[in-house]
Design goal:
By secondary structure, the protein is an alpha+beta fold. The chain contains eleven helices and eleven strands. Helices cover about 30% and strands about 15% of the residues. Strand 6 (about 205) and strand 7 (about 205-210) form a beta hairpin.
Length: about 325
């Protein structure tokens, strides 16, 4: 009944599909009339969370260290007094200071991302932007060029094939390289498999795909924005006074920390028009929510009245006071 209430709320706000799994068992599945449950759907910035998983797998394979300077791979940054101090962790925490590709819907190609301007000191400020993910893509491309065709090929062979996740489409730039900021299209039944990998802390059945310690790095926030890990959103409090000035920290995401019924370990991938992949490892559940309006949200920055707090209150059968505030999309 709680899942049905959550599905009804989602459907009122352009919801297309909802899947809920508990301890790996599918407990609920709902698709709007006319929705092909096998058809891939654009998850927009939900794509970013794959970059965190990619980094965790690469770290486990000895291809990178989270705190290594980017200039160990992007040598042309050595002459830049600011960029030469950026680490891989800072890129994925979005505290590198790079601000390129901040306009909704604009995904810079890898070379363009390398030229993105620095607007703050590395580690100092959270800037929600696409360029850092594309720089990370170029780092992985260079690290892998002697082994595989590109980073997406590595991720597919290293992780996605093992968990049976079929990608419907993954957008590439004119440079032929995959976008890590946006561009993955997945059916809800496929996206939920990524959530299960996170819930199982990197295991698939009895097989360890990614060491738990490596994957857990994705779920540690930065000092400036504890609510954002390595490409995953976290249920964590922001420092006093930061939320009002961190417009990019909200991006359509509710502050859930004040609600004790929301799992403290909740992590989630989020995209335009309120695409969501929620995971609670402690409570053992995964939920995927897909919705229409992605391209309009990316093109026009449309507001969506969908609220994570309202949705989760129904899903988790919690009694909360209703909220009416809407915040901009922009993933």
């Amino acid at each position: 009944e709680a899942c049905a209430r959550a599905a009804e709320y989602s459907s009122r706000h352009q919801g297309l599909s909802l899947i809920v799994q508990v301890n790996g068992r599918r407990m609920f599945e709902h698709h709007a009339p006319g929705v092909d449950m096998e058809r891939p759907h654009d998850v927009a910035s939900g794509t970013k969370s794959f970059a965190g998983v990619l980094a965790a797998a690469a770290a486990a394979d000895g291809l990178l260290q989270f705190d290594e300077p980017v200039v160990e791979t992007i040598e042309e940054w050595r002459a830049d007094p600011v960029k030469s101090r950026i680490t891989i962790r800072q890129l994925l925490h979005l505290v590198s200071g790079l601000a390129g590709g901040s306009k909704p819907g604009h995904i810079p190609e890898y070379e363009e991302a390398l030229q993105a301007p620095s607007v703050s000191e590395p580690g100092a400020r959270f800037h929600y932007a696409n360029a850092p993910f594309q720089v990370f893509g170029e780092i992985m491309r260079r690290k892998l060029r002697a082994l595989v065709e590109d980073p997406l090929v590595y991720l597919q062979a290293r992780v996605l094939d093992a968990i049976g996740l079929r990608v419907g489409r993954w957008r590439r730039g004119r440079d032929g390289q995959p976008s890590w900021a946006s561009g993955a299209s997945l059916a809800a039944r496929e996206w939920v498999k990524l959530g299960e990998l996170v819930r199982e802390e990197g295991r698939q059945s009895d097989r360890e795909l990614i060491p738990a310690a490596s994957l857990r790095e994705c779920f540690q926030g930065s000092a400036d924005n504890p609510a954002y890990g390595l490409a995953w959103w976290l249920n964590a409090p922001l420092p006093p006074g930061r939320r009002p000035v961190l417009r990019q920290a909200t991006l359509g995401l509710d502050d859930l920390w004040a609600d004790p019924w929301v799992p403290r370990d909740l992590v989630y991938a989020a995209g335009a028009a309120k695409q969501r992949l929620y995971v609670s490892r402690k409570e053992g559940w995964v939920a995927v929510r897909q919705a229409g309006g992605v391209h309009a949200a990316l093109a026009h920055g449309e507001r969506s009245p969908f609220s994570d707090r309202e949705f989760l209150s129904r899903l988790l059968d919690a009694e909360v006071a209703p909220t009416t505030a809407a915040v901009p999309d922009g993933h």
